[in-house]
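User: Continuing from earlier, I have the next pair ready.

Assistant: Great, send them over.

User: Here they are, in order.

Assistant: Folding the first of the pair now:
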Amino acid sequence: VGFFSGRMEFGPRALGARSILGDPRRADTQATMNLKIKYRESFRPFAPSVLAEKCAEYFALNVASPYMLLVGPVRSERLLPTDGNSGSDDLLTIVNTPRSDIPAVTHVDNSARIQTVHRETNPQFHSVLEEFEKLTGFGVLVNTSFNIRGEPIVCTPQDAYRCFMRTEMDVLVLEDFILLKEDQPEAESDESWRQEFELD
């Protein structure tokens, strides 16, 4: 889901105003978001946004991290036994082995770069996390910047829509509007936009 809400963030991280959100419970979320949306290597990790009041249920982090700058371990009771892939020579096998019940945000060392979302300072994004928790029982979402590899984070509604249509995102939340990909007119097939920015 591309999520565009209010004024954009200032700083190195997407914090719920210009974000791409995904389901952290799915083992395939990381590869899907990397390959079909961000257009980058499948092994690159993603960060979790978590309800601040529920952070301790998921992560061993006892301080606030509202700017997604702190790393902490996933709680040991959430970790899954691995099947011995740690001795494998295949890096992708190692990276793609689910390590917890939130595999899309659990790095190979069982850590995560955490954003704690506080009702007082980020009420709209907090309510999104609350609704996801009501639906799934998990107060955590994958949160990555709303852009593709090599491009700046989207700023305007036009930027958001263009990025949405050029990728395999399913849904775009644009302030009070919800746009489904299948309801949109066919996107232009011009691929020259891929050369507009230098890849990182």
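And the other member of the pair:
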Amino acid sequence: MNKSIMKSPVPDRSGGLTNTSWTMIDMAVLGEGTKGDHAKEQFVRRYWPAVYAYFRKAGQSCNDASDLSQGFFCDVVFGRNLLSTASPQRGRFRSLLLTAAQNYVRERHRYNRRAKRWSGVAPLTLSESEALVKKSQGAQTPEAAFTQAWAMS
């Protein structure tokens, strides 16, 4: 099977259909230096519109969808090395990317909800935390310092 062509087409800018470029994906994963950077840039240019459209239709504002798209490509696609898990034998690349985007939206939603739940509680200031550390200076280990600070708080 020609690795540069996949069975599941994705729309291109002209409204026609193009196939997944496995060569580009391989180069983005394995390429070093300028060639690898160029392949990653090509990858982002090719798939950004689909990811952005998904986030917009999922109810995100223009700016939030753009931020989510950027975070998705940085954190998931390149940060977690999503492309290295892709292969024509494992299924359609479109499905992999869509599932990863769906999971990313859920993850960000959970993170934001968790932050809102704790927003009413003011954390200790640095000076308050340092005061607790000074009180527990007799501790010999980090675990003992934890236990002493726990008891004092």
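Worth noting for the second one:
The radius of gyration is 23 Å. The first strand starts at residue 9 and ends at 11.
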